[in-house]
TrEMBL record:
This is Heme oxygenase. Heme b binds at R20, H27, Y135, R184. Its EC number is 1.14.14.18. Keywords: Heme, Iron, Metal-binding, Oxidoreductase. SUPFAM superfamilies: Heme oxygenase-like. PANTHER family: HEME OXYGENASE. The keyword Protease does not apply. GO terms for molecular function: heme binding; heme oxygenase (decyclizing) activity; metal ion binding.
Amino acid sequence: MPTTRTPAEAEPRTFSQALRERSWPLHDVANGAGFINALMEGRISREGYTALVTQHLFVYEALESVAAGMRDDPVAGPFVTDELERVPSLRADLAHLLGGADAIDDLEALPATRRYADRIRETAQWPGGFVAHHYTRYLGDLSGGLAVGTLVSRTYGLDLGGDGVRFYHFDRIPKPRPFKDAYRARLDAAPWNPDERERVIDEVILAYGLNTEIFVELGAAHPAAG
């Protein structure tokens, strides 16, 4: 006979668990976007992959510009670490994919990317909102980045961890799991009341939605082969 659990027992024990469980369905939606599925199957052109890297650059430039102003914040500051920075890697990847660094200056963001980047910049005065976007991007990168990087490097003939796929390689975080565990511990220790925790979760859910919109626009601009 199954054991009956009380509502309190059914709830996640920590904020980081609640955050993960509440946002997981959106994670699946983002990963299931047609463009990403086709990318993982090797059916997106090199130009389409380059377009994805381009959109990443605009998003991470926004995120890391806000991070620079959050370093001394008592709540958001502990989450800001140089080991996570992706902009230099993205610029190196694009310089390789485009045949030179000069071409980066002429790149344009998709409308969905502009909306995402604008939303990130709006959190410059809201530590909890910034952490929501920081969590969504970087913990996702650390969790699935190596696998994605391996597939992408094979598809486009790139050296794993080298130019073109540096974004997926965190050379300053050799052991992602302890890093992620410590990150989640900081989430649990953040001094947010229940209302603020709900706001943070809502912002994470919004971030997933904004990210999925980018994949939709990329898929329209770069249809999959086959």
